[in-house]
Amino acid sequence: MSTTGTESREPETDAPHTPPSPDGAARPAAEVRLLEPGEFRAAHALFGAALHAGGPVDDDHWALTRLSYAPGRTFGVDLPAGTLAGTAMSFGSALTVPGGARVPMAAVTRVGVRADRTRRGLLTALMREQLTDAADRGEVAATLRASEARIYGRFGYGVASRGRNLRVAAGARFRPHTPSGGEVRLLHPEEAAPLLPSLYARILGATTRPGPIVRDEGWWAHVLRPRRSADGARGIAVHTGPDGDDGFATWTVRQEGTDFGENVLELGDLHAATPQATAGLWRFLLGIDLLRAVSAHLRPLDEPVDLHLEDPRACRTTGIGDETWLRLLDVPAALAARTWGEAGGEPLRIRVHDALFAGNDGVHVIGAHPTATNGAYPTDPAPAEDGPADLECDVTGLAMAYLGDRRPSELVASGWWTAHDRAAVPRADQLFAAPAMSGVPWCGTFF
Ligand SMILES: CC(C)(COP(=O)(O)OP(=O)(O)OC[C@H]1O[C@@H](n2cnc3c(N)ncnc32)[C@H](O)[C@@H]1OP(=O)(O)O)[C@@H](O)C(=O)NCCC(=O)NCCS
């Protein structure tokens, strides 16, 4: 895919600098390069320091962490002396879109710039290179989790799924009508490594919820690496229903006081194929002895924990946060990959602005072309057109509606989208809505 867009700003005197190219065109202020595997550890240390996430990792930790650095996907920017000043990496994944198809996706992570080299355009240069590289690989989208909400919008990322933070009183009683059945068993960490990746893949294969992604081997190796004593104990449980293993949860426990029982179980991961398995795992967690509460971060907005409890106030929402930040790299392919709601009438014309990818910039027609069926989508999506449009937005605004998280009417009302034809707004709401029974967008994988 071709790129367009503005040049990076001039470097400050101590920022990395490259001379103009022979044809006289200005070069980016910072020269981004692919890092060699031997440099990944330095990149990891730089990222950890940028995030204030502790010192360099020890050899045992690194032996497993390095597996999550995919070759050919870790970028860096150097100081003039050759020391690394900034880095960003991704791993190849796939994103579930409305209707259940999965599109190739870059999972972007470990983005950091040395504190003494920030605000000189290094991230801007890294992002441009990384997004172009992902698009050249045929990846339809890139997603990430943002440490701060003001960083990534300028690069075309928009919040495409959100999650709910919960604190549930331990021992809370379940209503008699809560789905039930099945067994829960604890796993030793050594048992989890061969079991959880395939169980997660089975659950993912059955879901039509927009947002979940494929987890690669490196992700699992990093997450299931042996714990250090400072990390606290990890718990792992699997739920078995009538068709075999159908859900799992992982957690750690932290002390909130000095007495027995003053503990909070912090949920890490909970994925399940059925409502019975979801309820069974929550019932198990809330029934563990010597806990004060179970807390969970960025759970699906529609997860019915409170609906299962005799006292729904035992489940407190402590926050709602952004989860998936989505950058659409190939808008025609992304629009062809998802299914659309029934809206009737003429096809909808949306003008999309994208300063980086010329193929995205133009009018996209929804409702006139074949789209995804049975998880497969057309390989020759309709290119952007010229001409008038009913609605207009930039690629960030499109990402906010793409999985079904934000309705076009909300985005028009808040100024993210412009409506040239008011009658198009309710039709856009119907078209963009995720299929009724699939659930609200949610990913559930932190990276
Ligand atoms: C976030 C980070 C990578 C930005 O790197 P950087 O090289 O300073 O970014 P750039 O200089 O390319 O910034 C580009 C623009 O984004 C803005 N920006 C960058 N980081 C920002 C932030 N945290 N908050 C608000 N604006 C920010 C800059 O001001 C600049 O805008 P301007 O041109 O209008 O001044 C860097 O500050 C960092 O490493 N932070 C700590 C680690 C972290 O949070 N990493 C992200 C993990 S998801």
From TrEMBL:
GO terms for biological process: aminoglycoside antibiotic catabolic process. Acetyl-CoA binds at V111, G112, V113, R119, R120, G121, L122, L123, T124, S147, E148. Residues 1-27 are annotated as: Disordered. It holds the Pfam family Acetyltransf_9. Coiled coil: none annotated. InterPro entries: Acetyltransf_17 (IPR041380), Acetyltransferase_Eis (IPR051554), Acyl_CoA_acyltransferase (IPR016181), Eis_dom (IPR025559), GNAT_dom (IPR000182), NAcTrfase_Eis (IPR022902), SCP2_sterol-bd_dom_sf (IPR036527). One of its GO terms (molecular function) is aminoglycoside N-acetyltransferase activity. The active site is at Y152 (proton donor), F447 (proton acceptor). Residues 30-175 form the N-acetyltransferase domain. Keywords: Acyltransferase, Transferase. Homohexamer; trimer of dimers. HAMAP family: Eis. Belongs to the acetyltransferase Eis family. This is UPF0256 protein. The lineage of its organism: Bacteria, Bacillati, Actinomycetota, Actinomycetes, Pseudonocardiales.
